[in-house]
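Chapter review: from sequence to fold.
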Amino acid sequence: MSARPVPEMTELEQVAWDALQDGRLIFQSGEGGAWLPPREESPFTLSDDWQWSEASGHGTLISWVTYHVPYHDYFKDKLPYRVGVIELVEGPRLLAAVEFGDVAPVVDMPVELSVVRDEEDIAVPVFRPSESAPSPLALTNRGEHGG
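The token string follows.
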């Protein structure tokens, strides 16, 4: 099996990566909002006046895709797998692995972060349905997601 692909790191990305390896998801915030991925300046104001904040781990599923073809050899034995766009309650969005189990995924589903260590002992963010997530049937009955 190939080694897990990891990003090439800038100094700021290394800070976020190290936090994740410690079990914490962090993001930057400043005037104008909060953001991911890490960058030198606010994407809202271009100011370099910002701070790190720790995510609560709660968010909303915005979208997802199920991969049936691996984009890297590491993932070929993991097919099919899902990746989602998650909006954290604090505001920033990120791409992350999503695992739904027996729950049918729906847009706007509440999700919670788990920091999971893979077989190479690399910590990765995985989002799963929140314990307080309403059932997909309840969402459909409200008319919010088709049906």
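Two observations follow directly from the output. Helices lie at 11-21, 136-141. Strands lie at 26-30, 33-35, 50-54, 58-67, 81-88, 93-98, 110-117, 123-129.
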